[in-house]
Design brief:
By secondary structure, the protein is of the alpha/beta class. It is built from nine helices and 13 strands. The strands form four sheets. Strands 5-4-3-6-7-8-13 form a seven-stranded parallel beta sheet, sandwiched between helices. α8 crosses α9. One of its GO terms (molecular function) is protein-containing complex binding.
């Protein structure tokens, strides 16, 4: 019995030493030492790591005031890119708000000096340059001009180059020989100079609202229905001679969307993207 009483006395003595004290910060801490006031724990703030922001993507659009080029500029601006354009006429005549946010350069792609100045600080290029005329003129504007741009961009250390080319149309290729020979020469140069960052888009007929002066021409009125019909007739593309004539048209906004993604997405595969690939990529979410 005496042993039990002795243990109870020691237990009560221990409890009397246990008390709660208030810390200056309002918290309460358990203490077993009657002569010691516990201080609140010192909690150090996590160190803030200052990670530098990713480098600004600067895109140069060649032919940015044309039908396709203007849509490319707008798409790139919508994605938050810094956009500049080089074309023979310089500043776009379009009276739209986005046009004032583009840095416009006037120059000719056949003059390499002007092109090199426009490439300063540029990380990617999209060329929408092309045209029709005599065979010699078509080769020069579709081939030589773009080849100059590709070489200059490569020498400047540009990472990615996207070229808006054209789908084959079989017999039509012969009738527009200079046009297609120029396009294919530019493609060859691109795949040589930009083996890992060169992308070629080959759309067929591109439709959308085209501005001609103050007039707007809604090419989508017949382009959109044709696209829906010919998408379902893909096997007809395999017919000899006439098969390429069944290549479906594509919306200019789809071309612009894929072009900008190809120019800025490092995992976008290099190489040739046909009209079906353009349609497929345009339906995917951007990274």
């Amino acid at each position: 019995m005496r042993t039990i009483v002795s243990r109870l006395i020691r237990y009560q003595s221990s409890l009397s030493q246990i008390r709660f004290v208030s810390a200056s910060g309002g918290g309460r801490y358990l203490s077993t030492d009657s002569n010691k006031i516990d201080e609140p724990f010192n909690v150090e703030e996590a160190e803030t790591v200052h990670v530098p922001p990713p480098p600004t993507e600067k895109l140069l659009v060649l032919g940015g005031n044309g039908f396709v080029g203007s849509h490319v500029c707008k798409e790139a601006l919508d994605r938050g890119l810094s956009v500049s354009s080089l074309s023979r006429s310089g500043k776009s005549s379009l009276q739209e708000s986005w046009a004032s946010r583009v840095t416009w350069h006037q120059g000719n792609l056949l003059s390499s000096d002007l092109l090199k100045d426009a490439l300063d600080g540029v990380t990617s290029v999209i060329s929408c340059v092309g045209g029709f005329g005599s065979n010699s003129y078509m080769y020069k504007i579709n081939g030589t001009a773009n080849i100059n741009a590709i070489r200059a961009a490569s020498e400047k250390g540009v990472k990615r180059f996207v070229y808006i080319s054209a789908a084959d149309f079989g017999l039509a290729n012969y009738l527009l020989r200079g046009y297609y020979e120029g396009k294919r020469a530019a493609e060859t140069e691109l795949l040589t100079r930009f083996a890992y960052g060169g992308i070629i888009l080959r759309p067929g007929f591109i439709y959308g609202t085209r501005s001609v002066g103050s007039m707007k021409i809604p090419l989508g009125v017949f382009g959109s229905p044709m696209e829906m019909v010919l998408q379902q007739a893909k096997p007809l593309n395999q017919l000899p001679l006439v098969g390429p004539l069944f290549t479906p048209p594509v919306n200019v906004e789809s071309v612009a969307k894929v072009a900008v993604r190809a120019a800025t997405d490092p995992v976008f595969p290099p190489g040739i993207v046909d009209v079906h690939g353009i349609q497929r990529y345009s339906q995917q979410k951007s990274r």
